[in-house]
Amino acid sequence: MTATELGLPAVRRGATTDPARPADPRLVDSFGRVATDLRVSLTDRCNLRCTYCMPAEGLDWMPRDEQLTDDELMRLIRIAVRDLGITELRFTGGEPLLRRGLEGLVAASAALEPRPDISLTTNGIGLARRAASLAEAGVNRLNVSMDTLRPERFATITRRDRLSDVLDGLAAAREAGLDPVKINSVLLRGVNDDEAADLLRFAVENRYELRFIEQMPLDAQHGWERSEMITAGEIMQSLQREFTLTPDPTERGGAPAERWVVDGGPSVVGVIASVTRPFCGACDRTRLTADGQIRSCLFARTETDLRAMLRDGADDGAIADAWRQAMWAKLAGHGIDDPGFLQPDRPMSAIGG
Questions:
Q1: What is the C-alpha separation between 35 and 203, in angstroms, rounded?
Q2: Cα(95)–Cα(98) distance, rounded to whole angstroms?
């Protein structure tokens, strides 16, 4: 029985050199894309239980000995920045604020040469008391996940009554000078899909940048239904009833969000339409899970095991080569529209956003 049949992702160990790959030290793939943005998952643990992510009882968390140590993590980040052309780091989870020593990891990353741009994606629980220390350590900007402005709905969606903590965290991040402070919102049909305009109004009034994200098939329960997803088109229709939106003239590049200027500016709003308007052709991301696996795509069903290489004594060059080969094998797109599409075995909390 294979690993995939057991419900685990297929794992590639080490590097099998493809002679077709050019002699390029960067993370290039066979479609001409170059990965410069590294998403680093620090833990699969989370202190919320969002209905579209995991069951009420939570999940079986990763054993601590399977998680990368701080030294192992920093070695991989150093290889990525120094040898592979990574210029942006985003720390994710699970909930990254649950990782002990987070500020130290950020500071060590900020000390690398060349210094990468550093961002953080968080649910905002505990952010109010740590925003200043994270900014001092080297976080440049952050995203806070918040799907509603109504306390009772927040408790329904997250199964925790913590909206006030998230709002306090947003304010603290803005006061700490993090810029921009972005809000990530997922609209759920029949739950909070009437709040699009309210969320944007709140963001504009408080100088946050709002981004709506189409719900993706990454839940632990594998209960995602495309017909139930609020699409980018529906989101735009809701917003345009109350706001004038014009395309943002700024070059999008590999950014996942399409952006619009709100009522002439300066505020903008973004929509990440991974399902209905995929942007795979410009993808510039590579992903490192908390247990040291490289994923070339959020929806990948294969992984490359760098943790085993670290613990088996591989040198930096061998690890860099394995990472290059993993990215060279990246597929053209996520394949959600393909008849044979299969949801990744790992849920979003274990992959990292």
A1: 31
A2: 6
- Residue 251: count of CB within 10 angstroms of its CB: 6
CA distance 36 to 151: 38
CB atoms within 10 A of CB 338: 9
pLDDT tens for residues 251-306?
A: 888 899 999 999 999 999 999 998 999 889 999 999 999 999 999 998 888 899 99
What is residue 11's DSSP assignment?
Answer: E
What is the per-residue pLDDT for 331? 92
The whole-angstrom separation of Cα 98 and Cα 86 is: 25
3-state secondary structure 101-154: CHHHHHHHHHCCCCCCEEEEEECCCCCCCCHHHHHHHCCCEEEEECCCCCHHHH
Alpha-carbon distance of 18 to 21, in angstroms, equals: 6
Q: Looking at residue 6, what is its pLDDT?
A: 32
Domains (range + CATH), the chain = 10-351 (3.20.20.70)
d(CA 307, CA 75): 11
pTM for the full predicted model = 0.91
The span from the CA of 198 to the CA of 167, in Å, is: 15
Token pair, residue 88, equals 């942006």
Give every CB contact of residue 160 below 8 A, 6+ residues apart in sequence.
47, 48, 49, 125, 154
Give the burial class of 19: count Cβ atoms within 10 A of its Cβ; 0-12 exposed, 13-18 middle, 19 or more buried.
exposed
pLDDT < 50 positions in the chain: 1-8, 15
The reported pLDDT for the residue numbered 4 is: 35
- Angstrom distance (rounded) from CA 145 to CA 127: 12
pLDDT for the residue 347? 76
Residue 168: phi and psi, rounded to 5, are -65, -35
Judge contact between 288 and 40, C-beta under 8 A: yes
DSSP 224-258: --GGGBPPHHHHHHHHHTT--EEE--S--TT-S-E
